[in-house]
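INPUT
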Amino acid sequence: MNFKKIQFDSNDAQKIYENYLKQIKSATKKLSSDDQNDILMELNSHIYESSIKKEHSSNEVTNLIAVLDKIGTPSEILLPLVAEKKLNQATKTFNPVHVFQALALNISNGIIYIIFFFLYLFLIVFLGLIPAKLIYPDNVGLYYKKDVMFEFGAVFNHDQNRPYEILGNWFIPTIILIVILFYFLITLMLKLKRSLNKTKISI
Amino acid sequence: MNADFIEKWQSQLKKGTLSFIVLLVIDEGELYGYELIEKIKAKTKIEIAEGTLYPLMNRLKTDLLLDSKWVEQETGIPRKYYLLTDSGKRTLEEMKMQWININNVIKNLL
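OUTPUT
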């Protein structure tokens, strides 16, 4: 289904309307193109139906301003919808860019999203062990000696520990594997949290 | 009477029953967003803001209670109609039963 602009007789009304469309596009630009189009078409239909069914003054500009005022500023009224659709997209695609955008949009929707943010942040810090291993190969690794030591990550008394490093060249692949595994686990938890979400509405 | 308390309580009641009201009204026949707002206003005097309605419709769709379809219009501006799914119809029947139960419980207390 294609989007069709409403045509106004007055140039001023057309300008106001097109400016409003731009605000809708700007408020939804982080979503997939299907979602952007769906929201644009639905609000466009809402503007059209409100304009023709409400008895306003005969002035087209006054009518349109009243209709748009009643709907509200796109960046404000679309925020909950965009935040929700973004979260849907993020948990469906597992794309890290969508995940971080979704968390940023939902950060005000509860402490749980801040916790998720820190979980993902922890993964990034964990990835930092890879360059650390490349720069300080002797100080980073998995050091294990039965009943004596079990250390993982960066250690400083490496002279004493060095003989007990057991991963060697497998350290970096292991880190990558752990990060991928936890990334999927955390994102699955986010998905689960979404399905447990209760409808958040306000009148 | 504590007017502040009543106001908050009324707001909570509206929030708690809004999805029920939306499902009940759509059960009478498929509707598009603007029509739904107008119909709810006419039937209940509750005025739902657009910024409240559309996220709610999205959530009800995610929960598979509602479906939607775009319908071309002669005007060239298509409408997005919402309708109840089979799961939505069954859920609404259960919600009605629970509402009647709660109503009876409160009646006994009054």
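end of record. DSSP finds ten helices and two strands in chain A.
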